[in-house]
Amino acid sequence: MENNSVFNLIVESLPSSQAKRLVHGRGGVIKGWEQINIEVYPPVLWVMVYQSLDETDLLKTLNEIASQAQGLGIEAIYIQRRFQKDDPVEVFYGSDAFIGIDHRIIEDNLSYWVNLGRNQNTGLFLDMSEGRAWVKANAQNKHVLNLFSYTCSLGITAAAGYASSVVNIDMAKGAIKRGQQNLALNDVPCVSNTFIAQDIFKMIKKLTQKGPYDLLIADPPSFQSKAFDVRRDYEKLLTKLKPSLAPNAQLMLCLNSPALTPDFLHELVERVFPQAQFITRIKNPPVLADQNEEHSLKVMLYQLPA
Ligand SMILES: C[S@@+](CC[C@H](N)C(=O)[O-])C[C@H]1O[C@@H](n2cnc3c(N)ncnc32)[C@H](O)[C@@H]1O
To answer: Cα–Cα distance between 114 and 294 in angstroms, integer?
Structure first.
């Protein structure tokens, strides 16, 4: 993709009432933008720069957007430079009114709190939007276990999709609290929503007691020090949770490590659940195009036997 089409890519998606990723430079298909992602959390344009680089094209593009901001529904443009200490945020356009505050956004008719600039993660991983859409469309009447829930967005979509029950677990207390606040923002039909702020490995027994689950969602970090390492712990985790799964249960297993391909998950599932069928890999939206799809976010669906 030509660099000058980045402006078009952004403006064709604006104005937007929905939070979404607009530019996924990290996918490597936009020459010169490999270290830049841009998202919109209406009315804020949120630019993340991952490495020190010549910002001439970026700043030119942002100036063009700023000059049409009102028509595009943009009130502020912020740049977070993640290669600098403490990820400083520059106010490129507008005021700093949306920095460090709880800001309510919408995705697929559901509301979530985000906080721009408090830390690297805003509170909602926008690249998981298709995963959330799939869960919402497939959770009906299911008992759902949402592992590594973070702010529970996948659990909220399950609850909105008429799940019978949803158990969310994450070791980060603040993320679980935010998950409860996110649930409170939405009028969902599922009334059985559980939030557990604990290390998953310490709660296997309790999680099993709350089962059996018809849908297991696992979206772990690739590597988080002692807490979780995909290579070291993914198989161990699934093995421990195997007894808590119902017949015909579905597994939504995520892998966000560029170094690991879908085969890593296929082989792992084959070892732990030899009878499981691979259903599909949830397609990333076109905006997340990657020069190597094996390296991009992998959201894989499997089905256990009856
Ligand atoms: C990639 S984020 C999950 C994103 C989330 N699924 C979503 O859709 O927003 C990974 C999460 O795993 C949590 N985590 C890592 N190791 C864990 C463990 N052993 N037990 C519980 N949570 C863990 C982290 O606190 C973090 O919130």
So the answer is: 29
